[in-house]
Amino acid sequence: MKILVTNDDGVHSPALVYLRDELEQFGDVTIVAPEREASASSHAITVHHPLRLYECTLFDGSRGWAVSGTPADSVVLGILKFGTPDLIISGINPGANLGDDVTYSGTVGAAFEAALYDINAIAVSVIDVEEPDYAEAARQTADVVRMSEQLPNPFLLNVNIPPHHNGKRRITTLGRRLWSNNVQERIDPRNKPYYWISGEPKETYDEGTDIHATNHGFISVTPLKLDLTDSSMIERLRALLE
């Protein structure tokens, strides 16, 4: 199996090394990731300036490839440079990508880019931001990869691993996880205003969702797809507008 690994936290994240080392049991693993932090970049690609792809030193001193762009850019250039892989894994992200987070997430955005190429993809996140256990997350990712070999192709999975999980998985839907707007205005030393966007998540805990599962100690696995069509509105709109 040929695997491409990327992330949105940058090519120097130790998570990439843990993931590569665990995935090498399946075949050849290549790391291509943004040269710097690119969280919350969603599915953005770079179209108004050139991109660079260059070899770099990873967290453990081994070699990987850095891209002067977004996670989705990394997928595009990784495919261009190394050919089409059998599987693209994006992660391991320190912090949840639950519910509505997937619309912001660069981790999930890279997986969506893989889906555009009809390549199997898995986005992986650990919910513990302060002390993420990348080794355990990599092992759990390998288990999902192993089981996913039985799935029809292509597939796109979003995996979230809670701290102190119970070792069991739940297949889930996306929950509702909206963020309260908390924009802080500050003044720089030159007396010019600047802003920090932050906020707290407002979650719903409906049974069957990724949020409910992870809050109860389960690893959530959510199948996603590119089609954003609201099928429930088709007939009503036809009656009104056609």
Quick summary:
The chain is an alpha/beta fold. The chain contains 6 helices and 13 strands.
Structural summary, described in words:
The chain is of the alpha/beta class. The chain has one domain (2-177, 204-227): Survival protein SurE-like phosphatase/nucleotidase (Stationary-phase Survival Protein Sure Homolog, Chain: A). Helices cover 26% and strands 29% of the residues. It is built from six helices and 13 strands. It has helices at residues 14-23, 71-82, 106-116, 134-148, 210-215, 234-241; strands spanning 2-6, 28-34, 53-57, 63-67, 87-94, 120-126, 156-161, 169-171, 177-179, 182-187, 193-198, 201-203, 219-223. The strands form three sheets. A nine-stranded mixed beta sheet has the order 3-4-2-1-5-6-7-13-8, sandwiched between helices. The model has no long low-confidence stretch (mean pLDDT 95).
Layout of secondary structure:
Layout: E1 2-6, H1 14-23, E2 28-34, E3 53-57, E4 63-67, H2 71-82, E5 87-94, H3 106-116, E6 120-126, H4 134-148, E7 156-161, E8 169-171, E9 177-179, E10 182-187, E11 193-198, E12 201-203, H5 210-215, E13 219-223, H6 234-241
Parallel strand pairs: 1-2, 1-5, 2-4, 5-6, 6-7, 8-13
Antiparallel strand pairs: 3-4, 7-13, 9-12, 10-11
- Proportion of helical residues: 25-40%
Distance between the termini: 49 Å
C-alpha geometry: globular
Strand order of the largest sheet: 3-4-2-1-5-6-7-13-8
CATH fold assignment: Stationary-phase Survival Protein Sure Homolog, Chain: A
What's the overall average pLDDT, rounded?
Answer: 95
Counting helices, strands and paired strands, the structural category is: alpha/beta
Task: Please work out how many helical segments DSSP would assign.
Answer: 6
Fraction of residues in β-strands: 25-35%
State the major sheet. 9 strands, mixed
Number of strands: 13
Q: pLDDT under 50 segments (min length 5)?
A: none
What is the name of the CATH class?
A: Alpha Beta
The Cα radius of gyration reads 19 Å
Total domain count: 1
Label the CATH architecture. Answer: 3-Layer(aba) Sandwich
CATH superfamily: Survival protein SurE-like phosphatase/nucleotidase
Order of helices and strands: EHEEEHEHEHEEEEEEHEH
